[in-house]
């Protein structure tokens, strides 16, 4: 990280560091610490940027990339494009970018902020920032938002982003990303009639009582309904009632209608 010096990782954490390149204005570099009870693996990045990436395995695998862009270094747009396209999805790209733009909550704009706003739009990335400031400049007493948290579109709803209120001796506020627990969306189970055991269904419904055996028509209807339902449960499989995949964040009823319209046009 600091030249050829690699600090020891804290106890109970695995440490991953960015590569250092001589003569390219590299400062402290980037690092990622992962608690040892969380399965993870480091990823090789082909980039001149001060970036490091790790794949962590939680409820699903995520690529986490830490990036530091010093204000004195010229950032090439091509290097940013290559870095993002080198990250397996879903990914989170976090770091001190030293870019200012209202897109992630800053009150001002600088050239690097314009570059990143265009980069985010062209790559279709999600911005996790909520608009809070992330940095305090003690000489001027001003606050800025130069720390950006980006992600691939499929991860946009997976995390809640917030800034902690204490600087803890730094000039950057700690940023906390909390995973949103995914609750599978349910729907009514569907009967799989194509896989039904109709012979068994017939056996279960072959012995029925006469209507005359019941005191009222309501009692007879209840009996026949329960009998048919019980026979179906024992002879016709059903779907689970849950969506097989996590819904994508951009899907809406308008998309469902559009797909249905396209389907009717194909015939």
Automatic annotation (TrEMBL):
GO terms for molecular function: catalytic activity. It holds the Pfam family Exo_endo_phos_2. This is Endonuclease/exonuclease/phosphatase domain-containing protein. It comes from the Eukaryota. PANTHER family: DOMAIN-CONTAINING PROTEIN, PUTATIVE-RELATED (PTHR33273), ENDONUCLEASE_EXONUCLEASE_PHOSPHATASE DOMAIN-CONTAINING PROTEIN (PTHR33273:SF4). InterPro entries: Endo/exonu/phosph_ase_sf (IPR036691), Endo/exonuclease/phosphatase (IPR005135). Residues 63-175 form the Endonuclease/exonuclease/phosphatase domain.
